[in-house]
Amino acid sequence: MELRPLTEDYAVSPQIEPQDLAAIRQAGFTMIIDNRPDAEIPPELWAERMRAAAEAEGLTFVVNPVVGGAITMDNVTAQADAIASSKGPVLAYCASGNRSSIVWALSQAGRMPTDELIARAARWGYNLEPFRQTIESLANRG
């Protein structure tokens, strides 16, 4: 497990496993967002199994499956709503952390400058430059 903070209250990670949850809670996270569709992973990592394990650790667990190359506004809205409802730091995960970074940046459009959103993800090797125009469009809507 590798936690990659994008802000003080939001980090991303590649796929986590049930045995990582105690350490995630001990690191101060209160919510986990699963951005990985079940179809990509073995049954032992499916959302409902991860939810049960996370809730047993006292963590809130949100399922927001993001299909690579097919991010929807519903994904963006769900991510924003989950982050806003959290009572503490959030960890979002997918295969590499990239999709969790993208939906975060899109959900934060207008709350932070576009350059900063892109730069925060870039520190961890995530290239959000292809999403610049979408981030700016969303920022201008608000």
Automatic annotation (TrEMBL):
CDD domains: PTP-bact. It comes from the Bacteria. InterPro entries: BLH_phosphatase-like (IPR005939), Prot-tyrosine_phosphatase-like (IPR029021). GO terms for molecular function: hydrolase activity. Residues 3-110 form the Beta-lactamase hydrolase-like protein phosphatase-like domain. Pfam families: BLH_phosphatase. Signal peptide: none annotated. This is Uncharacterized protein (TIGR01244 family). It comes from Albidovulum inexpectatum.
